[in-house]
Structures are given as C-alpha cells and as structure tokens.
C-alpha cells in the first residue's frame, strides 16, 4: 500500500457558525458537502459513542479539501492555544494569491497573526502564521513569481 494523494484535512470546531465564515467567506473555500452524520458508521469510524457530527467539506480551486466537524452531542471544551513548536499535528498550510491583501483584510476582521507577511529565507515565498476562530494555526504562503 502507498499513499496516492492527500484527500483532506479535518478540523474539529466548537461552533460551526463562528468557524464556517472564516473558511468560506474570508479564505474563499467552496462548500461541496454540508451534512449531519450519525449512526453506527459515524461511531465506528470516529470511535466516539453516540457521535452526531455536523460536517462541512470545502475545497480550494485545486480540489484539495478542508473538513470542518462540529460534534453536536459530545462536545469538548476548546483546548488551550498550542505553540508553534508543540508536538503533534500543528498547522495547515494554504497557498494564497496575494498574501499582503489577505493579511490586511483578515487583520481588520480580527484574525490573529504572529507577524505580518515576510519573505522566506529562500526568497521563493512570502509567509505568515495566523489562527482561525478556534485558535488552529494556519500557515499562509504566497509563492513569489521570481520562484517560477
């Protein structure tokens, strides 16, 4: 067996009404699935007894998806914010077109950034980290034309 492709990244959220506008409206991802999932299959796959999950799948123009999952009847409290050097799944990297413009728009919408966009040491990309409404780190990357 070998991996053929990355299918999606799943992000558990405490409040779909808060998180969805960030990913759909601010980042511009397109919703292609919005369902409540429950029953024996949801329980078996997640390992969560009684799982009832509001699942929203969104895709970028290249077809890669982010899946937001809100556990409706088995919620957990939002954990403390992670640090960039914490062990485990740490961030999702998204390629954007105009990072400076996105930074200004997102910052004015209250999104938290570690730094304004900076050019990477390679000179091939501009990058920054921000947090989504739940505190999940996103690395935003603009590939610079000189890198083509």
Task: Walk me through the structure.
The protein has 3 helices and 9 strands, in the order βαβαβββαββββ. It has 2 domains: 8-71, 2,3-Dihydroxybiphenyl 1,2-Dioxygenase, domain 1 (Roll), CATH 3.10.180.10; 91-147, 2,3-Dihydroxybiphenyl 1,2-Dioxygenase, domain 1, CATH 3.10.180.10. The protein is 19% helix and 35% strand. With 148 residues, it is an alpha+beta fold. Strands 5, 6, 7, 8 and 9 form a 5-stranded mixed beta sheet that branches. It has a 4-stranded mixed beta sheet with strand order 1-4-3-2, with helices on both faces. The radius of gyration is 17 Å and the shape is globular.
Span of the ends, CA to CA: 33 Å
Q: Approximately how much helix is present in the residues?
A: 10-25%
The CATH topology of the largest domain is: 2,3-Dihydroxybiphenyl 1,2-Dioxygenase, domain 1
Overall structural domain count: 2
Mean pLDDT: 92
Low-confidence stretches: none
Global Rg: 17 Å
Give the SSE order as H and E letters: EHEHEEEHEEEE
CATH top level class name of the largest domain: Alpha Beta
Strand content: 35-45%
Largest β-sheet summary? 5 strands, mixed
Structural class: alpha+beta
Reported CATH architecture of the largest domain: Roll
Tally of helical runs: 3
Task: Give a brief rundown of this model.
This protein is of the alpha+beta class.
Write the layout of secondary structure elements.
Blueprint: E1 8-12, H1 16-26, E2 30-38, H2 40-46, E3 52-59, E4 65-71, E5 91-95, H3 99-108, E6 112-113, E7 118-119, E8 125-131, E9 137-143
Parallel strand pairs: 1-4, 5-9
Antiparallel strand pairs: 2-3, 3-4, 6-8, 7-8, 8-9
């Amino acid at each position: 067996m070998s991996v053929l492709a990355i299918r999606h990244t799943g992000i558990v959220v405490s409040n779909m009404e808060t998180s969805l506008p960030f990913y759909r409206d601010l980042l511009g991802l397109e919703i292609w699935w919005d369902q409540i999932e429950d029953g024996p299959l949801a329980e078996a796959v997640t390992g969560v007894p009684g799982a009832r999950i509001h699942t929203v799948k969104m895709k970028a123009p290249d077809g890669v998806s982010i899946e937001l999952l809100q556990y409706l009847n088995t919620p957990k409290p939002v954990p403390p914010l992670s640090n960039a050097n914490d062990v485990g799944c740490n961030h999702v990297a998204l390629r954007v077109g105009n990072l400076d413009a996105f930074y200004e728009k997102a910052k004015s919408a209250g999104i938290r950034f570690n730094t304004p966009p900076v050019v990477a040491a390679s000179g091939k990309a501009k990058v920054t980290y921000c947090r989504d409404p739940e505190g999940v780190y996103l690395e935003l990357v603009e590939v610079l034309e000189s890198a083509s």
